[in-house]
From TrEMBL:
Domain ATP-grasp: 105-300
Enzyme class: ligase
Gene label: ddl
Name of the protein this chain belongs to: D-alanine--D-alanine ligase
An annotated Gene Ontology molecular function: ATP binding
Length: 304
């Protein structure tokens, strides 16, 4: 059997660099050497992606272990497309759409529930009193960030204004949403197959923020089967979203379920974290798919 030559790219220049390095190293270390010849490239500045040109003839597949801007927003995907290289995850347009939470919500809102809200730029900021039309408690976050960086829950004018200042340090656009208390879940979809739901219970805050995701004992993440009707709703929504964003490989979709079992899409992750402790590997492990086999599955779904 001819071994596939896989290059893992990691690092990057976004605020999620450290997460990317952890993901990339675990992918690099765990790709099956019986199936792949594996190399890696550390991205310290965006131009480093063009180092691939000198090794292009020795690469069959690029595993993108980047997170955040440049890696998930369609930029790297477009560059690899021009090089004629296959890579992990959705294509350029889908990646770009899903990176912009506001655009993604607009694309799917006619088919699934999305959290009520709007987006704001510096020239279109809502005053606190006007923002309260979405609720007395509000969520503010950057439009194109991940790992829950730049996420704030506020219920007064001072915190609202402070959140705006802090988020504009990370992004030029803000998502403003109604705060909905409920259960957070995440669902992987790979090659149009919905995998088991992972229920997330934050232990250190009201939501699954950066500290909850990456600190020890920050949250309980467990594979969870809801009642038949609710689980069927979650699975159906996941298939619909996967189809409407034209994913054609893999993604992880995050949801919020309120007290009346209304399911709201939060966002779509086109390059979900892939440390062994990440949500997607936990979901697949519950189906008997170990970490190495999960990497095989993600590569196969991207190549077809």
């Amino acid at each position: 059997m001819n071994k596939k030559r896989v290059l893992v790219i990691m690092g990057g220049t976004s605020t999620e660099r450290e997460v990317s390095l952890k993901t990339g190293e675990q992918i690099y270390n765990n790709l099956d050497r019986g199936k792949y010849i594996v190399s890696k490239l550390l991205i310290n500045k965006n131009e480093d992606i063009f180092k691939i040109l000198s090794m292009k003839d020795e690469i069959d597949f690029v595993y993108i272990a980047l997170h955040g801007s440049f890696g998930e927003d369609g930029s790297v995907q477009a560059i690899l497309d021009t090089m004629g290289l296959k890579y992990s995850g959705p294509k350029m347009l889908t990646s770009s759409i899903c990176m912009d939470k506001n655009v993604c919500k607009k694309l799917v809102k006619d088919y699934v529930n999305v959290i009520p809200g709007t987006s704001m730029k510096k020239d279109s900021l809502l005053k606190y009193e006007d923002a309260k039309k979405y609720g007395n408690k509000l969520v503010l976050k950057q439009v194109n960030g991940g790992s829950s960086l730049g996420l704030y829950i506020v219920d007064n004018e001072k915190d609202y204004n402070n959140a705006i200042v802090e988020i504009f340090k990370l992004s030029d656009e803000i998502i403003l949403e109604k705060y909905i208390k409920g259960i957070e879940i995440s669902v992987p979809v790979i090659d149009n197959i919905v995998y088991p739901t992972v229920r997330i219970t934050p232990l250190k805050s009201d939501t699954f923020d950066y500290e909850s995701k990456y600190s020890d004992d920050g949250a309980i993440e467990e594979v969870y089967e809801f009642n038949k009707s609710l689980q069927e709703k979650i699975n159906s929504m996941s298939k619909t979203i996967y189809d409407k964003i034209n994913c054609n490989s893999f993604c992880r979709i995050d949801y919020l379920i309120d007290e009346n079992e209304v399911v709201y899409m939060i966002e779509v992750n086109t390059l979900p974290g892939m440390t062994k402790a990440s949500i997607l590997p936990k979901s697949l492990m519950s189906k008997g798919i170990d970490y190495k086999s999960a990497l095989d599955l993600l590569i196969e779904s991207s190549i077809k």
